[in-house]
Amino acid sequence: MLSRLSPRLLSSSPRLLSSSIRTLVNVTYPSPSVAVLELDRPPVNSLSLEMATSITSHIKQIESDPQIRSLILTSSNPKIFSAGLDITEMSRPSKTRLSTFWRSIQSLFLTLYSTRLSTISCITGHSPAGGCLLSMSCDYRVMSRNPKLGIGLNETRLGIAAPFWLKDLFVKTVGYREAELGLSRGKLYSPEEALKIGLVDEIVDGEVYDVAVERAEEYAEIPEKGIVATKRMCRGELVRDLEGKIEEDVGWFTDFILEEGTQKGIEGYLKSLSKK
Ligand SMILES: CCCCC/C=C\C/C=C\CC/C=C/CC(=O)SCCNC(=O)CCNC(=O)[C@H](O)C(C)(C)COP(=O)(O)OP(=O)(O)OC[C@H]1O[C@@H](n2cnc3c(N)ncnc32)[C@H](O)[C@@H]1OP(=O)(O)O
């Protein structure tokens, strides 16, 4: 029923939907050419299989409306953009669920990174690991100036490594040496530090959402043909690299996660999170 509605009517607020069909995101339209996709999976917007699948299918629905030119990705939680992958998906999982989960993450990345829409990440809160992946997949990133916030790839801190395509995305964003340092140290950057290395494009003292809408409208004024061709030129290589290695990447991920040593690391990390 829901999928037959026009994307414009698809404001999937939890207030309107029963929990059984909750879509984990809210979609709104601040202007005729701009859509906002708000992550809404309390407590920390972590990316479970269902969450990743929902975001991907909403991006595709929004994309199918030719009037919409820009998409803002943001969070219903003012303190947390996204805590990244749902770590519980990687803790003692079945191999089948784990590979389906990883496919949903690959698909979310490919969809967001190569969409015809101009994408603005509106980062009001923490954005570690998979949260940083979502932000880096967008065309432009605005972040609140709050020095307590962190953005970056902290996988090594969990005893895991970023997959090759996330490493490549990071290298493309911040350059080789900074990426190597940031990845191996599992560094989370403050907004000021992130701005300095090009991990975010702008930091905002006041209402970051208003700035994101302004930028989305600016992008929407640029002729679509030029912007889509440019995006394809800049991003095509990484998209093709991953598309050509989907199965290999699923194999690496499942083997790596299912190793006993990795499982112990994940268990310990989960404990440390819930003890806080
Ligand atoms: C050479 C071969 C290479 C092969 C490579 C192949 C494959 C690659 C292998 C692996 C790649 C996998 C990539 C992973 C990327 C990821 O995204 S991993 C996730 C990383 N995320 C984090 O580390 C963030 C952890 N969370 C936090 O730091 C904090 O929660 C926060 C976001 C800063 C918020 O803090 P706050 O104090 O507000 O909240 P709490 O910490 O109290 O959390 C509330 C609640 O939520 C639970 N939780 C937090 N984060 C997650 C999460 N990511 N997943 C699941 N659950 C999470 C937390 O445990 C609390 O739960 P509660 O105690 O039950 O209330």
Automatic annotation (TrEMBL):
<keyword id="KW-0276">Fatty acid metabolism</keyword>
<dbReference type="InterPro" id="IPR001753">
    <property type="entry name" value="Enoyl-CoA_hydra/iso"/>
</dbReference>
<comment type="subunit">
    <text>Homotrimer.</text>
</comment>
<dbReference type="GO" id="GO:0005759">
    <property type="term" value="C:mitochondrial matrix"/>
</dbReference>
<keyword id="KW-0443">Lipid metabolism</keyword>
<keyword id="KW-0007">Acetylation</keyword>
<dbReference type="InterPro" id="IPR029045">
    <property type="entry name" value="ClpP/crotonase-like_dom_sf"/>
</dbReference>
<comment type="function">
    <text>Key enzyme of fatty acid beta-oxidation. Able to isomerize both 3-cis (3Z) and 3-trans (3E) double bonds into the 2-trans (2E) form in a range of enoyl-CoA species, with a preference for (3Z)-enoyl-CoAs over (3E)-enoyl-CoAs. The catalytic efficiency of this enzyme is not affected by the fatty acyl chain length.</text>
</comment>
<keyword id="KW-0496">Mitochondrion</keyword>
<protein>
    <recommendedName>
        <fullName>Enoyl-CoA delta isomerase 1, mitochondrial</fullName>
    </recommendedName>
</protein>
<keyword id="KW-0809">Transit peptide</keyword>
<dbReference type="Pfam" id="PF00378">
    <property type="entry name" value="ECH_1"/>
</dbReference>
<dbReference type="GO" id="GO:0004165">
    <property type="term" value="F:delta(3)-delta(2)-enoyl-CoA isomerase activity"/>
</dbReference>
<dbReference type="InterPro" id="IPR018376">
    <property type="entry name" value="Enoyl-CoA_hyd/isom_CS"/>
</dbReference>
<dbReference type="GO" id="GO:0006635">
    <property type="term" value="P:fatty acid beta-oxidation"/>
</dbReference>
<comment type="pathway">
    <text>Lipid metabolism; fatty acid beta-oxidation.</text>
</comment>
<comment type="similarity">
    <text>Belongs to the enoyl-CoA hydratase/isomerase family.</text>
</comment>
<keyword id="KW-0413">Isomerase</keyword>
